[in-house]
């Protein structure tokens, strides 16, 4: 099961939104197994069957977590691609003043 992150103000807006990043199951499992006890709980603690609207502070935290992932996993292309895309999505969210909404599939 994947989690998809969208830039949107509400759930209705998500349906017509092309700004998204998918947090695939294999990436989630890799990070969950390798980051035990880390400060990535905001990312790894998401309900894979639910949804979450991130606050501005949480969006900044997500960006920080993703920057750490890029620095930690320099040889893991999938992790780097995911983290960079989520960094960009967070930047878009802050630039447009919209939220990030995560949906479990």
Topology:
Elements: E1 3-8, H1 11-14, E2 20-23, H2 25-34, H3 41-44, E3 51-54, H4 56-72, H5 77-96, E4 99-104
Antiparallel strand pairs: 1-2, 1-4, 3-4
Strand tally, please?
Answer: 4
Named CATH architecture: 3-Layer(aba) Sandwich
Helix count, DSSP H or I runs of 4 or more residues: 5
On the 0 to 100 scale, the average pLDDT is 91
Rounded Rg: 13 Å
Q: State the low-pLDDT regions, or none.
A: none
Describe this structure in words.
It is a single chain. With 105 residues, the protein is an alpha+beta fold. The chain has a single domain (3-104), classed as Hypothetical protein yfbM fold (3-Layer(aba) Sandwich), CATH 3.40.1760. The chain has a 4-stranded antiparallel β-sheet. The protein contains 5 helices and 4 strands, in the order E-H-E-H-H-E-H-H-E. 23% of the residues are buried. The chain has helices at 11-14, 25-34, 41-44, 56-72, 77-96, and strands spanning 3-8, 20-23, 51-54, 99-104.
Keywords:
105 residues, alpha+beta, Hypothetical protein yfbM fold, 4-stranded antiparallel sheet, 4 strands
Task: Sum this structure up briefly.
This protein has 105 residues and is α+β, with helices and mostly antiparallel strands. Helices cover 52% and strands 19% of the residues.
